[in-house]
Design a protein that fits this description.
By secondary structure, the protein is α/β, with parallel strands linked by helices. It is built from 8 helices and 12 strands. The protein has 2 domains: about 160 residues, Ribonuclease E inhibitor RraA/RraA-like (Glucose Oxidase, domain 1, 3-Layer(bba) Sandwich); about 50 residues, no CATH class. The strands form 3 sheets. Strands 1, 2, 3, 4, 6, 8, 11 and 12 form an 8-stranded mixed beta sheet that branches. It has a two-stranded parallel ribbon with strand order 5-7.
Length: about 230
């Protein structure tokens, strides 16, 4: 999906967690995290599947992906050999890609931290893939962190993890923006007015939890009976 600059800025002004309130699927396992918490990314997925120790498909994807694309790598459960290090990521940075998500380890952790390019992975390993040119696929549906990712899906990640924004993400964006503004407003009140956040503003949670739900359900059944 192509993003306008305005829409890109609007989404990046909120967090994946604001969308996560509503998602029933389309989120990656929380073991996939950024190399450093400050990393944040948003862009259309360019998908790669590599299940062996051959990393050539990832280099091929770097050559073919468009500016702003996020490379999403399905390792097929392989969790020992790192397919990305600081030199590969430097190439991605120079080709102006949007980020990298790997369902497996990366390497060169300190180098990746220095580059600052958004890299999300499950951890780090000192052993790596090799460029053999005999294995791997690009541009098809993949599974990453338990989520199915189609080419072009919008990938959004920050310190909390990675979500795949649904096609109707705009339906949730305004709600996410309102939630973000409400949280900022509350933080200002705490800092400037000494406000104490002792209960939710939108629901009486004590009444909600303690109400006789069985009686409410019985009444609904009675009202709906023929």
């Amino acid at each position: 999906m192509k993003l306008t600059k305005e829409m890109y800025n609007r989404i990046m002004s909120v967090s994946p967690a604001q969308f996560g309130h509503h998602l029933e699927h389309g989120f990656m396992h929380p073991r996939i995290k950024p190399v450093v918490p400050q990393m944040k990314m948003l862009g259309p997925a360019y998908t790669v599947r590599m299940t062996e120790r051959d990393g050539s498909a990832l280099y091929y994807a770097i050559m073919k992906a468009e500016k702003g694309d996020v490379l999403v790598v399905d390792r097929g459960g392989e969790d020992t050999f790192a397919c990305a290090g600081d030199q590969l990521v430097l190439m991605m940075q120079h080709r102006e890609l949007g980020g990298l998500v790997v369902d497996g380890p990366a390497t060169d952790r300190l180098g990746l931290e220095r580059l600052g390019f958004p890299v999300f992975c499950t951890g780090f390993s000192p052993v790596t893939t090799l460029c053999l040119g005999v294995n791997g696929e690009v541009g098809g549906p993949v599974q990453c962190g338990g989520a199915v990712v189609q080419p072009g899906d919008l990938i959004f990640g920050d310190a909390d993890g990675v979500v795949i924004l649904p096609d109707n993400f705009e339906d949730y964006l305004e709600a996410a923006e309102r939630m973000t503004q409400n949280e900022l407003h509350r933080a200002r009140r705490v800092a400037e007015e000494g406000y104490r956040f002792l209960c939710r503003d939108d629901v009486d949670i004590v009444r909600f939890f303690e109400c006789d739900k069985n009686a409410v359900i019985s009444k609904i059944k009675k009202d709906c009976a023929y």
